[in-house]
Write a structure and sequence with these properties.
alpha+beta, 4-stranded antiparallel β-sheet, 3-stranded antiparallel β-sheet, about 45% helix, globular
Length: about 450
């Protein structure tokens, strides 16, 4: 019989099944030979022109802040600028707005076109690429000097929050009870509504179905305004993310997860950030998704002394020897089994994603079905799909708020916290563990027990 270790080792599809909202990541590339364009800002004395210019430059300053940790400190950096990037969309609202902003930044000399080639929809996500541009640090300095002389401040990005009173305007054809964080939805857009208006109405339905959602979005905005004004790279993005069918007739998935522009940074690059910002303390919540799931099912926080991966293993092999190889296999396969649509399908989907040479398909399907059933049993009898990231985000968001308000500088990466502070490592770990427990219990009591 095939083992979980062998299945995990044969995976060719390395997808993590964690429904990350913003997957874009790139490494800077230096342009060794370039011609610096003239930096020029056209001014006009026409009525309203000055206000328009100030607003435009304010948003460009925010873009500059978003890329400051990615571009080189001197000279010219080659970088992709995608019109679908979530950070840029948060500044300019839509893809047309981002496209117009790129054209304006070329006009003033902040950036220039390096390559107009791009690719989207490739078989492998890593093969997708955006148009690339030259980013001129010299002209960034000129831009900042221009804005400083005129007291032009950067635009502060906020997560959108709608007025709940507008729920009364929900289109009659929308079944509010079916609007939730999930895959495999089919929420058909009424012909009278634009995509933007439909997403707004779905968001209002989510506010009703998830009572804590609007509160935590507002809390994210408070964090960004109060603590991350000068650190936009850490700014929390916490908004529902809608995936449309290819023909744009219906929404087939709604996801949500608190992220920031540096969340998906590679491990090696992360070390550089930790050093640059002086983070000396680190704590991640062990086995966050299975722990949060069992805690929801039990109605109380499951302490980290409970080894969730061994708990799953013991259901499959009560008398077996649990070791680091088995732990790694369970960890690597957990999300795949957790988020699949059923016990039967998880084996088939795993089989399609692995090296199939000299291995029996039925063995793989049986083992993965057994594995998923063990996960369900070990985690309390019910899995929560995309809802688990909503709960995680709310609980960790409040833990982040507690840390920031107590004077720590913090970078949160999903279930991991990097921070400055006078505490020793042991004290910091206790602080995070205790804070997560308290925030989970409050969330459970205030927002989850009576959730529709």
């Amino acid at each position: 019989m095939v083992t979980l270790e062998e299945i995990a080792g044969r995976l060719t599809d390395k997808k993590k099944y964690d429904f990350v909202v913003n997957k874009e990541h790139w490494e800077p590339k230096r342009a060794e030979d370039y011609t610096l364009p003239v930096f020029i800002i056209k001014e006009s004395k026409a009525k309203g022109a000055e206000t328009k210019l100030r607003n435009k430059l304010s948003k460009v300053l925010t873009f500059v802040d978003f890329v400051k940790h990615k571009r080189f400190k001197t000279g010219c950096t080659i970088m992709p600028i995608s019109i679908t990037n979530k950070d840029y969309l948060s500044i300019w609202e839509n893809e047309k707005g981002v496209s117009r902003a790129i054209a304006y930044m070329i006009e003033i000399g902040l950036i220039g076109v390096e390559s107009s080639k791009y690719q989207f929809g490739a078989c492998h996500e890593e093969d997708n690429k955006s148009k690339t541009y030259y980013y001129y640090k010299e002209n960034e300095d000129a831009l900042k000097a221009y804005c400083d002389a005129r007291n032009i401040q950067k635009y502060i990005v906020k997560n959108k929050v709608y007025d709940m009173k507008e729920i009364k305007n929900i289109h009659a054809s929308i079944d509010k009870t079916k609007v939730r964080f999930a895959s495999r939805l089919k929420l058909i857009k009424p012909a009278e509504l634009s995509k933007a208006e439909f997403e707004k109405q779905l968001t209002l339905c989510l506010y009703e179905n998830y009572p804590g959602l609007s509160f935590h979005i507002l809390k994210a905005n408070e964090i960004n305004e109060k603590y991350y004004r000068d650190y936009p790279e850490f700014r929390i993005r916490f908004q529902p993310n809608f995936t449309w069918s290819d023909d744009d007739l219906y929404v087939n998935r709604i996801g949500i997860r608190a992220t920031n522009s540096m969340t998906n940074m590679k491990k090696e690059a992360r070390k550089e950030v930790i050093k640059a910002y002086g983070f000396t303390l680190e704590k991640d919540i062990n086995a966050s998704v299975p722990r949060m799931t069992l805690s929801l099912n039990n109605g109380e926080w499951v302490d980290e002394s409970e080894d969730m991966y061994e708990r799953i293993f013991r259901i499959m092999e009560p008398g077996g020897v649990f070791n680091k190889e088995k732990r790694k296999a369970i960890k690597d396969l957990h999300m795949r089994a957790y988020f699949d649509q059923g016990d039967k399908s998880v084996g088939h989907h795993t089989w399609l994603a692995m090296d199939q040479e000299n291995i029996d398909r039925e063995d793989v399907c049986e083992k993965m079905e057994e594995f998923r059933k063990a996960i369900i049993q070990a985690e309390g009898g019910k899995l929560y799909g995309s809802d688990i990231f909503y709960v995680e985000s709310c609980v960790y968001l409040m833990t982040l708020y507690d840390l920031l308000s107590s004077g720590h500088k913090v970078w949160q990466v999903y279930d991991c916290f990097y921070a400055t502070g006078e505490e020793d490592q042991e004290t910091f770990e206790f602080m995070i563990s205790y804070g997560v427990k308290m925030n989970f219990l409050y969330f459970m009591d205030a927002y989850w027990k009576n959730k529709k």
